[in-house]
Amino acid sequence: PNYSSSMDAACKIVEKMRLLDLSRTRHNEQMICRFIKWGKVEHYIAEAATAPVAICLAALKAVGYTERSPS
Predict the structure, then answer these.
(1) How far separated are the first and last CA of the chain, in Å rounded?
(2) What span, in angstroms and rounded, lies between the C-alpha atoms of 46 and 1?
(3) What is the DSSP annotation of 8-51?
(4) Which of 39, 42, 54, 60 is the S-S candidate for 33 at Cβ 3.0 to 4.6 Å?
(5) Which of the pair, 19 or 62, is modelled with greater confidence?
(6) Highest mean pLDDT among 13-17, 35-39, 57-61
């Protein structure tokens, strides 16, 4: 599925991340998504133009993916 372009597909990611709470807000025309792990009080935050992209980016951070600069 096109997780980063379809809200229905992005919701599947949210379901898989069910052990974490999800917070979504809009700020300055951007969507901010945050997965929260309450036991350790960890926050995984991403900002993007659309909710599906922000959800995908926050989920990647929550599972340990870190962005690398292009070589």
Answers:
(1) 28
(2) 20
(3) HHHHHHHHHTTTSEEEEEEETTEEEEEEEETTTTEEEEEEESSH
(4) 54
(5) 62
(6) 57-61
Would you state the torsion angle of the CA atoms of residues 32, 13, 65, 70, taken in this order, to the nearest 10 degrees? Answer: -70
User: CB neighbours of 36 closer than 8 A, spacing ≥ 6?
Assistant: 20, 21, 22, 23, 42, 43, 44
Q: How many residues can be counted in the chain?
A: 71
The SS3 assignment for 63 reads coil
Between these two residues, 14 and 49, which has the higher pLDDT value?
49
Using a cut of 0.70, tell me whether the model's pTM lies above it. Answer: yes
